[in-house]
Write a structure and sequence with these properties.
The complex is a heterodimer of chains A (about 550) and B (about 625). Chain A has about 550 residues and is α+β, with helices and mostly antiparallel strands. Helix content of chain A is about 35%, strand content about 15%. A seven-stranded antiparallel beta sheet of chain A has the order 4-3-2-1-7-6-5. With about 625 residues, chain B is an alpha+beta fold. The chains are: A alpha+beta (about 550), B alpha+beta (about 625). The interface between A and B is large, with 53 and 51 residues.
């Protein structure tokens, strides 16, 4: 079925658009295969709103007499209302949106059609890879190697083709270890701390099962990680009880007797459905029109979102403590090793490693530790907070990461080269994007779908001149020290930039941001001409993403 | 006065990690508690003003010693551990006496001399003048006049001597209305909004009881209404919950009956009384001092304290007033019971929302001087300066400061000052180092001769204004009326105030410090200019020569300036260098990545350090104007 067959009514005149904190507008509404386009009727300087259908999380339709109202709830938390004259038109538009916003096939999605003239499909795709990280990290060369045992994705379908493992462990052992780990996710290197050579490894749970099965190769692999130093830490992201229970279903944990050089610490982290429901409750609480403070605080508490932020930062802090303060290597895993495992290991890197706090470095970290590491973006981000659909595999792990990074930024406003605007942009792109970066669930799927050949890379685009500067932190001052965030409840806050994004509040914050830029600009002009190019254009696309998309549409 | 002077081997317990507790010596001077931590390498001092001590509690004996818990009005907590019980008991007894003076003249302000002469003192007190603010509003004019009817405090003993009335209010109306209002606090002008000609007036509750009336009071409201040609009615806002107001009727007080007053629109606002607020703060502080709460414990505790609910109720009332004035162009009469707590909160908040002047450093001083000090907010009672009825103590003024802070979080570019200014004012209110917040009303202050015996805080704040500036302040948006969102999610816990001394909870790097340090050079340049102009003026004979040279750090190096009767510390000889050492902590950028830091030195300490190399700024301010005039 062609996409266009879903469109029964392509155009409606005299539609009224209502947005929060803006006067209502009348204009024309169009539905295309991938977009909803509203244009103001005024001839001169017409205003247009373009929404990627993929961005629509839920719609509600209400008919009254001969006209209907559609409420559109977007994955970036924007809520819009369209009043459409004509009942039939209203129902047609609604059913088109429903069908086209949830396309099953990846290659039918918009990134495969997005062809702006200023981007070239044959340009480089992505910023980083396992091989590049290895090449850059001289400290690894002695004891570690790049293995291509997974070059055809047969050993672990969710890993990239190349992984970093101890030099003394050959590919055959890796294959055995992979068989002993859920989803084949055997322990691989995620990060090497340059100061002391300690590493952060990640994997999935071992499949010890009820019979306490062992795998010699897996044990050897982990022993090789330690290599003579006395101790390593396994941070198991489940409670001890949960880890025990996992044995009943074939999973398990590394027992002390088999992995004698490793000390296991359990830290309970919520996953999957619980996290998704937490996000849904939080967003619901934020849009509660009630004026009771008690009710708000009780809903905020009840959503548990901040508790999840708290646990993620605490455990990341624990990993950093092991690596930086105590000088031990760490293995992080939960069950599948595709969600909280990535969350904790990448947060720990942000805290530890100055290189991952630059704009490029942070994007490289996301690329290696989330995209290539096989976080199933397509499943996790199928729906956001508004959808009424039955939950399948949705889970806001990545959004939780962005929130934690925001908390770190709030506590260390000078230490990150990128700004809140980048985090907001990523929060939006991960759910609906013109780019192919967050498509599919792992590298294998991306190769099969031809993502790199047929879509544009978001990260490349973010780093292109003129765009990059919108995402820079004007106050950035690099520091080599670890940046330990405080995890006192008083130190953690609701990420208002994201959750109150479409309120007047966001405009006041934008004003403050502009003021800060102008102070910095003035200062730098005084300090010398060499740094003046680091000031942003006055237009910022992150708070008004539609205008930005508009520029790109006109090229279509 | 005899009390224990010093105790050695006292432990200062760290709330979070037992390991990092310090060992040191405790000194009690006439004015301060000083704890000197003695490590091999570092010596850190913690100074606490006796007036800042809210309570002292002896905790049960433990194996490691006798613990003493000191809670401060600045929300600092000191947990001391003594080796000997006798020491603990003696310190406890001494502090009880030192922290609760019985007579006014025992307050710090009567000892404190910031190295100023009588002329400086006089100028300092004249620096903020409430009458000038009426001129700024454009008064007197055809509708309003500034009256001296109360110059001997005969009409109302707790009001200031200068009052604003509608021009058409007769003396009989004024005196008659005063008799019908609780404690004679009749309706008077609080703020006049030039653009809309609407006014905010304040008073106490009427003595209406179940059905009493007063013609003069009804006339008073009528002339207030008629003084605003833009609106045919006035709002009468009773800031109390309806139930409280009704209960007062049985006691012969109550609220305005809409049938008796023509063209009024009556509203309750539902702000709770001082006792509810005191208890709420108590609960909030319990949440703040929980040892290691989970996120849920903390949020539930915050909810149960009700604190943010009360802050919102004050804000809601302020927003109601501002909207009535700027959108409906209607005048508003505000009262609560006595009209010196909730009324002060709501009127001053409305002023900030309506008038950008009050969002400046000097404007906030004027506002506090006008709505709080001169209109008889009972600072001595509410702050518990003296050993008086604990039921009179309530954080009413703290709540006002918090409302301003909440606004500054929503509007980061509209205030000239930053959070530190609010916190410094809060500390000074309780410190009694300056005379401004001593006494309960103007009449009392005159009787105490505060202007002759103490100094004013405002010049001191102005002198240090560079550290209170908000670098993001935008003059271009200053002219707008603020319309804050009062959705509950905009009310945040103020960590900078209630957990001020828990440095580990605060952001480790400060945007404020960073921006201030960038803009500081410019400010310093301007200061130098001003100083040069002043010196020129002196040389030209335009200005009298000040008593000494301008930069005389040596003069102030001796701690005896600050603690004139301090017995032990000087002999120790270590005070001055230690204070110097502390400036590092205060300075911008110094907090970088330091996980643990000691308790911050108290405000008084900052004062001394920061005033060392600076001329007295009232002088510079004045001279600047005079120089300009003379050219």
């Amino acid at each position: 079925m062609e996409l266009s067959e879903h469109i029964k009514t392509a155009n409606v005149e005299d539609v009224t658009l209502r947005r929060p904190f803006h006067p209502a507008l009348r204009g024309t509404l169009c539905v295309t295969s991938h977009h909803l386009l509203f244009s103001d009727r005024k001839d001169e300087a017409s205003w247009q709103l373009l929404i990627l259908l993929r961005n629509i999380d839920a719609i509600e339709k209400r008919t009254m007499g001969s006209s209907g109202t559609i409420t559109i709830k977007c994955k970036d938390l924007l809520v819009l209302q369209l009043e459409i004259p004509g009942m039939e038109e209203c129902l047609n538009i609604a059913s088109s949106i429903e069908a086209l916003s949830a396309l099953e096939s990846v290659t039918e999605t918009y990134p495969f059609f997005y062809r702006p003239s200023h981007l070239n499909l044959h340009g480089p795709w992505g910023l980083s890879s396992t091989e590049q990280y290895y090449k850059q990290t001289e400290r690894l060369w002695d004891r570690w190697r790049v293995s291509t045992v997974n070059s055809d994705f047969s050993v672990c379908p969710s890993y990239p083709r190349a992984v970093i493992v101890p030099r003394e462990v050959d590919d055959e052992k890796l294959v055995q270890s992979a068989r002993f780990r859920q989803g084949g996710r055997f322990p691989v290197l995620s990060y090497c701390h340059l100061r002391n050579g300690m590493v952060i490894m990640r994997s999935s749970q071992p499949l010890t099962g009820a019979n306490r099965k062992r795998c010699k190769e897996d044990e050897l692999l982990l022993q090789a990680v330690i290599d003579g130093s006395e101790l390593g830490y396994i941070i198991d992201l489940r409670s001890a009880q949960q880890a025990q229970q996992a044995r009943m279903t074939g999973g398990g944990f590394e027992s002390k007797s088999c992995y004698s050089y490793w000390k296991r610490i359990h830290r309970h982290h919520e996953r999957g459905k619980v996290l998704q429901e937490s996000l849904i409750k939080l967003v619901e609480a934020c849009s509660d029109p009630s004026h009771s403070v008690d009710r708000w605080l009780s809903k905020l508490e009840n959503s548990k979102w901040l508790s999840h932020v708290h646990s993620a930062l605490s455990t990341a802090g624990l990993v950093v403590e092991c690596v930086e303060r105590d000088g031990h290597s760490v293995l992080v895993h939960g069950s599948e090793g595709t969600d909280s495992t990535l969350l904790v290991s990448s947060l720990a890197q942000l805290i530890l490693d100055p290189a991952s706090r630059t704009l490029t470095g942070f994007l490289c970290l996301l690329e290696r530790d989330w995209i290539q590491a096989g976080h199933p973006f397509q499943q996790r981000c199928a729906h956001s907070a508004f959808s009424h659909a039955r939950l399948k595999q949705e889970c806001p792990s990545f959004l939780l990461l962005l929130d934690c990074v925001w908390q770190v930024w709030r506590q260390f406003p000078l230490a990150l080269e990128f700004s809140e605007a980048l985090l907001l942009r990523l929060a939006q792109e991960v759910y609906a994007s013109n780019y192919g970066t967050f498509l599919c669930n792992n590298e294998q799927e991306r190769c099969a779908a031809g993502v790199k050949e047929n879509t544009h890379c978001l990260f490349q685009s973010l780093l292109s001149p003129n765009i990059e500067e919108q995402y820079l932190n004007p106050l950035y001052e690099p520091t080599d020290l670890a940046i330990w965030p405080s995890v006192h409840p008083q130190s953690l806050q609701l990420w208002t930039g994201l959750f109150l994004r479409w309120t007047e509040y966001a405009q006041n914050m934008e004003e403050a941001r502009e003021e800060m830029w102008s102070i910095m600009k003035e200062h730098r002009e005084k300090a010398g001409p060499d740094r003046t190019n680091k000031t942003p254009s006055t237009h910022c696309d992150t708070l008004t993403p539609f205008e930005n998309l508009m520029d790109e549409l006109t090229i279509l | 006065m005899s009390h224990v002077e010093s105790v050695e081997y006292v432990k200062l317990l760290n709330r979070y990690t037992e390991k990092s507790s310090a060992l040191g010596t405790l000194y009690l001077t006439a004015t301060h508690l000083i704890y000197v931590e003695q490590n091999n390498s570092t010596r850190k001092e913690t100074w606490v003003l006796h007036h800042h001590i809210a309570s002292i509690e002896k905790l049960p004996l433990t194996a490691s010693g006798c613990p003493l818990l000191i809670r401060c009005k600045t929300f600092q907590l000191l947990h001391l551990l003594f080796q000997r019980e006798r020491d603990c008991q003696e310190v406890y007894q001494s502090l009880l006496r030192l922290s609760q003076p019985v007579k006014e003249d025992e307050l710090y302000a009567f000892l404190y001399n910031p190295n100023q002469n009588e002329e400086d003192r006089r100028r300092g007190w004249e620096f903020i003048n409430v009458a000038n603010d009426f001129s700024r509003m454009g008064l007197s004019n055809e509708h309003w006049e500034i009256s001296h009817l109360n110059k001997n405090f005969e009409i109302c003993s707790t009001y200031p001597s200068i009052l604003g009335f509608p021009k058409s209010a007769s003396v009989a109306t004024v005196t008659g209305s005063a008799k019908f209002r609780s404690r004679g606090r009749l309706p008077v002008l609080s703020y006049y909004h030039k653009d809309t000609k609407a006014a905010i007036c304040r008073c106490s509750q009427p003595l209406s009881g179940l059905n009493s009336r007063c013609v003069e009071d009804e006339q008073m409201l009528q002339v207030i209404r008629q003084a605003n040609p833009n609106c045919p009615f006035i709002y009468v806002v009773d800031t109390r919950p309806k139930l409280n107001a009704m209960a007062n009727r049985a006691a012969g007080k109550g609220y305005e009956n809409e049938d008796n007053y023509s063209n009024i629109r009556f509203h309750f606002q539902g702000i709770e009384n001082i006792h509810v607020m005191r208890n709420s703060l108590q609960k909030l502080l319990e949440v703040c001092s929980m040892k290691s709460p989970s996120m849920s414990d903390y949020l539930t505790g915050l909810e149960n304290s009700g604190w943010l609910r009360h802050i919102k109720s004050v804000m809601d009332a302020g927003v109601f007033l501002a909207k009535a004035v700027c959108e409906e162009r209607a005048s508003v009469l505000v009262h609560c019971s006595d009209g010196w707590d909730r009324t002060a909160q709501v009127c001053s908040l409305a002023c900030i929302l309506l008038d950008p002047y009050y969002r400046t450093i000097k404007g906030l001083m004027v506002l506090i001087e006008k709505e709080w000090i001169s209109f008889g907010h009972k600072f001595s009672y509410r702050c518990g300066h003296l050993d008086t009825d604990p039921k009179e103590v309530s954080p009413v003024f703290t709540q006002f400061l918090e409302c301003v802070w909440q606004l500054s979080e929503q509007f980061p570019c509209v205030f000239e000052f930053n959070e530190r200014y609010l916190i410094e004012i809060h500390n000074q209110v309780y410190a009694c180092q300056y005379g401004n917040f001593i006494g309960n009303c103007q009449k009392e202050r005159l009787e105490m001769r505060l202007h002759e015996k103490t100094f004013s805080l405002w010049p001191h704040l102005l002198e240090n204004q560079h550290q209170y500036r908000n670098p993001l302040y935008r003059r271009s948006v200053e002219s707008t009326v603020l319309r804050p969102s009062t959705l509950p999610l905009h009310f945040k816990f103020w960590c900078g105030m209630y957990n001020h001394y828990d440095r580990g909870m605060h952001p480790k790097q400060s945007v404020l410090d960073q921006l201030l340090s960038l803009t500081k050079k410019q400010v310093e340049g301007e200061r130098t200019m001003t100083e040069l102009q002043r010196q020129l003026a002196v040389a030209d004979g335009v200005l009298p020569d000040p008593s000494g040279p301008i930069n005389t750090p040596a003069e102030q190096d001796s701690p005896s300036e600050k603690t004139p009767t301090a017995p032990v510390v000087q002999s120790n000889g270590s005070c001055a260098p230690l204070i110097n050492g502390d400036t590092e902590e205060v300075g911008p950028g110094a907090e970088k990545c330091n996980e643990k830091e000691g308790a911050e030195p108290t405000a008084t300490e900052h004062d001394l350090t920061s005033s060392k190399d600076k001329p007295v700024s009232v002088e510079t301010e004045h001279s600047k104007e005079e120089v300009q005039e003379s050219h």
